Amino acid sequence: MTTLLAPPETGAKTAGPAAPPAAPPPGRLRRLIRGPASQAAYVRPAALALLVGTAFLYLWNLTASGYGNTFYAAAELAGTQSWKAWLFGSLDAGNVITVDKPPGALWVATAFARIFGFNSFTVLAPQAFMGIAAVGLLYATVKRTSGPVAGLIAGTALAVTPAAVLMFRFNNPDALLVLLMVAAAYCVVRAIEKAGWKWLALAGVAIGFAFLTKMMQAFLVLPAFALVYLIAAPTSVRKRLVHLFGALVSVIVSAGWYIALVELWPASSRPYIGGSTNNSLLELALGYNGLSRILGGAGNGGGGGGATPTPDSAAAPA
User: Fold this and answer.
1) What is the per-residue pLDDT across 214-241, written as a single tens digit (0 to 9) for each?
2) Where does the Glycosyltransferase RgtA/B/C/D-like domain start and stop, copy by copy (predicted)?
3) Domain map of the chain by residue range?
4) CA-to-CA distance for 318 and 314, rounded, in angstroms?
5) Three-state SS for 98?
């Protein structure tokens, strides 16, 4: 029996050329520089350029200022020699008297000096790094509300403001104060987006530690932060008030623990609180660093750079 084969179909489709392989995903470094694909190509490179430029501006020839404010440099030197001096911000390793500010900024700077050694660069570099971080945080804060162009303008404005350049190249407490206040502003913006009490509590923590840096000056932004959240948070008024109360508690706890520690520590075994009239950190906050700043009062005499702090020069405030 003969089997007939069916003739081939005349309309059969022939296979075309193979599709080109999909492009490999961009490398990690390229993604880091370029940023997410949903973002304009210029945004991430411009932000990185802003940070690099700020780092150059704040770190270039940094040691030209010597040891900066020798009043605080002496306290930092003491902190590298005595843990108690580091805790209280003493001017000398023998813990006779503290500086006239809480030791928040000294904690950071002294930790840096303990790790890398005490010298002009390690005294001044922490403030420069704080400045770079503050510029980056301000950019991120403004970008979330007004877009990347506004964020770049805000970050650049902070970076090149003459007072900021001086502040972030010197070892006064203002550098950490500004960084913490900008961090608090970022947290408030994040809290407003979804009425997030956790972000608002973090803002309170930042302000609390800003208080431990330069006391009452940290509270200048609190009315604005509270008012903005009370008006703009997307939740009920009752919840807004509850969230604000929680933030207030976080401010009190993050600042109050150190005040309680100093006040409860036997005065005979800790240094005298510099700037106070009765050896009280609370009185220092309300008096010398509080009402006296409004009604008028003299600051410490610590000043310009050049001299190298020594244990002998740290025996008393300038």
Assistant:
1) 998 999 999 999 999 999 999 999 999 9
2) 100-255
3) 41-295
4) 9
5) strand
